[in-house]
Write a structure and sequence with these properties.
The structure holds 2 protein chains of 2 kinds. By secondary structure, chain A is of the alpha+beta class. Chain A is built from 12 helices and 11 strands. In chain A, strands 1, 2, 3, 4, 5, 6, 7, 8, 9, 10 and 11 form an 11-stranded antiparallel beta sheet that branches. The N and C termini of chain A lie far apart (75 Å). Chain B is mostly helical. Chain B has one domain: Fumarate Reductase Cytochrome B subunit, CATH 1.20.950. Chain B is built from 4 helices and 2 strands. The longest helix of chain B has 36 residues. Classes of the chains: A alpha+beta, B mainly alpha. At the A-B interface, helix 1, helix 2, helix 3, helix 4 and helix 12 of A face helix 1, helix 2, helix 3 and helix 4 of B.
Amino acid sequence: MPDDETDHAAPDGGTPDTATLLKRNPLQLIAIGVVLAATAGAFAYTGGFLTPQRLSPNHFVDAMQTAAGGPHEGFRRAHAKGICVAGHFVGTLQGRALSSAAVFASGQPVSVSGRLAESAPDPFAKDSSEAVRSMALRLQPAGAPEWRMAINDTPGLHVSTPQAFYDNVVASTPDPATGKPDPAKMQAFLAQHPETVAFLARMKARVLASGFATDSYNSVDGFIFVAPNGARRLVRWTMQAEEPFATLPAAERAAKPANYMFDDLLARVAKGPIKWRMIATLAQPGDPNRAAEVWPANRTHVDMGELTIDHVESEATGNCQDINFDPLTLPPGVAPSDDPIPFARSAVYSVSFRRRTEEAKAPSAVANKSAGARS
Amino acid sequence: MIRPAHRFPLLSRLLHWTMAVLVLAMLFIGIGMVSTVSSRYAQLVAIHKSIGIVILVLVAIRLINRLLNPPPPLPADLPWWQVVAAKASHWVLYLLMFALPLVGWAMLSAAGAPIVVFGAVHLPPILPHDVAMFAVLRAAHTVLALLLFATFLAHLGAALFHALIRRDEVLPSMV
């Protein structure tokens, strides 16, 4: 054994062998153990392993999967049923004055791709449900940083904090015994969250648009627009449909085929582009930057530009299916605000993206379809 | 403290301690950012990417420096298995300091995500948009990071063993 050569206690006063050294220095050995254990402990604590109650993005996605009756492998954990869209955006002079983002800078068309979807976690849900509809976009000005957004057709969000969002998911989770959410749990949640009660009242009062093209989509969260002169404004924005508003009575909706909203969208784009105006709402000092609270109706609105969608196609490898529409992918000229929701969305989307990319995915409900010529 | 007969050159020591701080910070920021939904999340991710690219540049400089300025010899009476462990763990550390930033950069490329460092510098993708590749690289990033943390602990424990128990020239040669 080579260590017989080197590991002996040295008779001439040199370094003794390792076992002898360790025996002679018990306090030093303990000190080293303490330093290593403390470092490993601090690492575990930072990663949340010692505080399982602390809200992590994995907790969120786990809870959402449980509420949905298990994961739908390969699909987004929310807004699972969708279709890819493409087109362009042209910014206005007023938009340019409010934000130095490249999408407003030139007044030239900026390439846009994105996704229209329903919020249900089931990628094969029937369109007749009253699911929230969403528009996710990537605005990619040539030679400048891109802007991603994920916006909803709801009047704000049902909660204002990540914790409340999580608690709401837990309260809506079906009881394994009955297969239905426990009404007492939801009552308890609502008793704690008047902002959710108010949101649900607004949802009940709204008239549901007939489909994706006639619907308008709101940023939900507050963001900061940074003007070319450095001025910062808290804003929300809406992609406001230029299509004349239309609605469908519930009975008519229920009689429609499972994918009627997607079929309607394909048919509509086959006839020509669909357009939305991007309208920013400027907050006044004191307006609550909380996603569940609406701002007074008399706030200044600024027409930031026009979005044109002229192409729709089914989800497939390499298109919108494989994009994480992280709402914090912001260009210079747009910045996060102190609204806490986008940070949690960014973290949770990242986990959802990671999980679905590790899984095999079945074809989407609306597969192998497209309409409209790419501009 | 023993005045070391062989000391690392100043550049080697500067690189070592700068990177020690950055790598340790990086490991804590990394594990912290993936476990939070707080408003610190975006800032942590931004810092993580920036430090990552700094580490990649520094480790390249450091490797060249190491080849030009070889480290002083280990104590002559160090048992053979500790010599092997010391040399192997140093090469593992070098390998991981290269691999983690590169895997991080490659995984963001494969995700089709913009790669922004220092708030404004956009790095080009080093892989095409391919989410199956992203899934593999994202998992590898975690495994390699945990391996780096484990190797760092071994390195720290060995440094303290040399300093407090063997009381040899190893730690003084690096300070």
